[in-house]
Design brief:
Radius of gyration: 19 Å
Helix content: 40-55%
Bound molecules: flavin mononucleotide
Largest sheet: 8 strands, parallel
CATH topology of the largest domain: TIM Barrel
Strand order of the largest sheet: 3-10-9-8-7-6-5-4
Number of helices: 14
Order of helices and strands: EEEHEHHEHEHHEHEHEHEHHHHH
Length: 311
C-alpha cells in the first residue's frame, strides 16, 4: 500500500475518508479511522458561519481523542472570510485545511460557493492564496470536473490551484450537472494527475479493493477517497487495505452513538444516527419494516434497548 504525504503531513496509507455532509460526523470518522482510513475530514463547514460564531457550525468541528491527522473542510466564496476563519483558534487542532470547490447543491452553488468556483478560477485562486497566507498548514482543494459536460475545466483548474499554492488536490470527476449519477470519469482524473506535480487524490466510486485498484491503475493517482461506501460500512477501509479484522456491527453502532453522545445533546445524536442507522441496519439485513420502526424512535434509551434486542 502506497503512502501519501500532503505538505509536511505523512499519512500511513493513501486511503482517505471523504467529507460527507450529514454523515462524516465525529462518530463515523472514529470508526473509519479504526478500520484504517489514513486521514479523516469534517463535512463542509461555512467559513462565514464560523466567523459569526454560529453554534451549530462550531459543533461540526468536534473531533475524537487522538484524531490525527484530521482535516477541516471549509466552503464559501470570499477570500477574506477564508483568511479570517483559518486564523480562528477553534481550527488550530486541524492538521490540513481543505477547501470545497465541488459542492453541487443549488443553495451552495447559487451563493457562489462550492462548485460555482469552477466557473470563477481567479476567485478560486485568491481563496487558496488567502488560506495559504493565513496558515503554515497544508492546504488542499476538492473539486469536480466542471459545471457541465460542455465546460470541463478540471485540468486548467488543477494547474491554477497548484499555482496558487495548494499542497494537494482531490478530483471528483463528475460535473456539477451530473450530481452523483453516472460514473466518475477516470480519464479526466488521469489528465489532472498528469497536469500537476502536487499529490492528486481521486474521489468517486471507490467501493472495494477492485475499484480502488482500478482507480489507481487508470489514473496513477497518489491517493483515493471513499465516501458513500463507508456509510454504515466503515470496515470498507480494512477490506480495501487487506487488513484482517473481526467486525462487530452492534459494537460499532454503539461506539458511534457513544462518541456522538460525548459532544452533542440527545436530539442531535438521534437525528444524526437516523441517517447512519438506515445504512447500518440495511447492511445488517434488518427487515425494512423494522428499520422504519427504529428510525422513528424518539429517545436514545429506547433506541439502545431496541438495538440490543435485534442485533
Ligand atoms: C450525502 C453526501 C454529502 C457530501 N458532502 C460533501 C461535502 O461536505 N464536501 C465534499 O467535498 N464532498 C461531499 N460529498 C461528495 C463526496 O465527498 C464524494 O466526492 C462523492 O460522493 C463521490 O465519492 P463516492 O463515490 O465515494 O461517494 C458528498 C456526497 C454525498 C453523497
Amino acid at each position: 500500500m502506497k503512502k501519501l504525504k500532503i505538505g509536511n503531513i505523512s499519512l500511513d496509507n493513501n486511503l482517505i475518508l471523504a467529507p460527507i455532509a450529514g454523515f462524516s460526523d465525529v462518530g463515523m470518522r472514529k470508526l473509519c479511522k479504526k478500520y484504517g482510513a489514513a486521514l479523516t475530514c469534517t463535512e463542509m463547514i461555512s467559513a462565514k458561519a464560523l466567523l459569526y460564531k454560529n453554534k451549530k457550525t462550531a459543533d461540526l468541528l468536534a473531533t475524537f481523542e487522538g484524531e490525527k491527522p484530521v482535516a477541516v473542510q471549509l466552503f464559501g466564496h470570499d477570500p477574506k472570510d477564508f483568511y479570517e476563519a483559518v486564523k480562528l483558534p477553534i481550527l488550530d487542532k486541524f492538521d490540513i485545511i481543505d477547501i470545497n470547490m465541488g459542492c453541487p447543491a443549488p443553495k451552495i452553488y447559487q451563493n457562489g460557493d462550492g462548485s460555482h468556483l469552477l466557473s470563477d478560477i481567479e476567485r478560486a485562486k485568491k481563496i487558496v492564496a488567502a488560506v495559504k497566507s493565513a496558515t503554515s498548514r497544508p492546504v488542499t482543494v476538492k473539486f469536480r470536473s466542471g459545471i457541465d459536460s460542455g465546460h470541463i475545466v478540471a485540468v486548467e483548474f488543477a494547474k491554477a490551484m497548484e499555482q496558487a499554492g495548494a499542497d494537494a488536490i482531490t478530483i471528483h470527476a463528475r460535473t456539477r450537472e451530473q450530481g452523483y449519477s453516472g460514473v466518475a470519469d477516470l480519464e479526466v482524473a488521469r489528465a489532472v494527475k498528469e497536469a500537476v506535480k502536487i499529490p492528486v487524490i481521486v474521489s468517486g466510486d471507490c467501493v472495494d479493493r477492485a475499484s480502488y485498484d482500478k482507480i489507481l491503475k487508470e489514473t496513477k493517482a497518489d491517493g483515493v477517497m471513499v465516501a458513500r461506501a463507508a456509510i454504515g460500512h466503515p470496515e470498507v477501509f480494512s477490506e480495501i487495505l487487506g487488513k484482517e479484522v473481526k467486525v462487530n456491527k452492534k459494537a460499532d453502532i454503539f461506539e458511534h452513538i457513544a462518541e456522538l453522545e460525548k459532544h452533542f445533546d440527545e436530539r442531535f445524536v438521534l437525528l444524526s444516527m437516523r441517517a447512519h442507522l438506515s445504512q447500518y441496519l440495511k447492511r445488517a439485513q434488518i427487515k425494512s419494516e423494522k428499520r422504519v420502526e427504529i428510525l422513528q424512535i424518539e429517545s436514545l434509551k429506547e433506541l439502545k434497548n431496541t438495538l440490543n434486542c435485534i442485533l
